[in-house]
Write a structure and sequence with these properties.
The structure is a single chain. It contains three helices and 33 strands. It is mainly beta. A hairpin with a 6-residue loop joins β6 and β7.
Amino acid sequence: MHKTISPFWERKDLQTQMWLPTSPRGLLSSLVTLHVLRLGSADFRVVGPDRPLQVTVGQDIVLPCHLSPSVEARSLDIRWIRHQVSETVHHYRNGEDLYREQMEEYVGRTELVRDGLSRGSLDLRISWLRPSDDGQYVCTVTDGASSGEATVKLEVAATGSVPQLSLEAYEDGGIRVVCRSAGWYPLAEVLWKDPGGQHLPSVSQRHSSDERGLFDVEDVILVTNGNRRGNWSCVVRNSRLNQQQETSLHIAAPFFHNARPWMVGVAVLLVLSVVFLVVGAYLWRRKLLQSRELEKRVAALKAWRKFLLPHHTDVVTLDPNSAHPELLLSADGRSVRRGRARQDLPDTPERFMYQRCVLGQEGFREGRHCWEVEVKGEVGGDSWWAVGVARDSVKRKGSFCLSPEGGIWGIWQCEVHFVSLTSPRTFLSPIPIPRRIWVCLDCTQGLVTFIDADSGVEIFTFPPASFKGEIIRPWFWVETEETQLCLRDNTS
């Protein structure tokens, strides 16, 4: 799992042999010089874990790597890569994070844990794990002419839904039973058990992956008149996590009486009819309850807005001193989009230099506040944007943690994903994705709420937080050129 760094003076290559002098006096002088160099250099190994790391999709992980013995690492060149040298996950050199070569799928999701650099720790934090993050990572260290590496194996996994069993049709003298389950990674194993607990072979299998890379599975068996009557079970198992989901279905003898296809077909039809009626009634009742709940929320929201706006009408503008050099702000400071070229702006402490973010000019320390953001241009698909609030002390340079722990409360549209920036992430599913969003901040209660301004439906509310009296400012992130974030007057 590790390799010893070989200093350049220990390498017996042709170049070294040609460099060493042949005269006794020159040889002695050279040996003394090499001895002094060796005394001034660190002799260490790069060490990784001796077993794979397992993590669930959506969580964060710290990939461990360290130098042995523990030596100062802040001035070294540290690079985490995937399968090939060109696939850079994170690059750090001499106190600075370098993002120019970073793979696109890791943008905004990696952070070198700098607290341990002085002790030789080279740990890398990756946020919001995806199935595509599964595999080997290599921690490489370069110190002048020396280099070393260690391998870390990451196993990403997800346990899917409880299987759904259904009687599909009469086929070849028996009943076709289908087991379906979704949301697994890696591909799950499906096992069937008859009423006696014996395993049965399936007659067909099918699987597919969704937009997140998680697998849906479908497995079929044929229950015939010669099989036992009783409970038939479908077990879907994730061997990596040693977790499983199981569902049973009771099949009684009348299904096979005289093994006549028309009788089985009628029985299956009756069962399906009952199921459809029950499901239809459930969905109708659920829709009715949702409609009533929506009416209550809209009424409450209107009452809150009527109470809030006369006293706390927040006119929010963008702070140009905090804007990333690729962000273009309107003259009135009320909209932002990404440009195609990087502007020549000073690298001040207030300015975001890596993440394409900008803060609001206004800051809030107490009371309740609300402002409206409109998303123009591309909203779903390949768009990438976020809105919310951030502590005034949020990190402006290099990568930072996109969560309340990193000083950010927001909702994020990242290609096909719409999530809240919790840790781990919370997937949101309003359809369609809202174009007008209220960002509501209650400094006293420590609450941050997002509301669909068109429907009045609450999108997400973060758990209460302690702002500790710090100034909280509006926060915006625009990654795609097709998207523009505009601030609207909430009195309109």
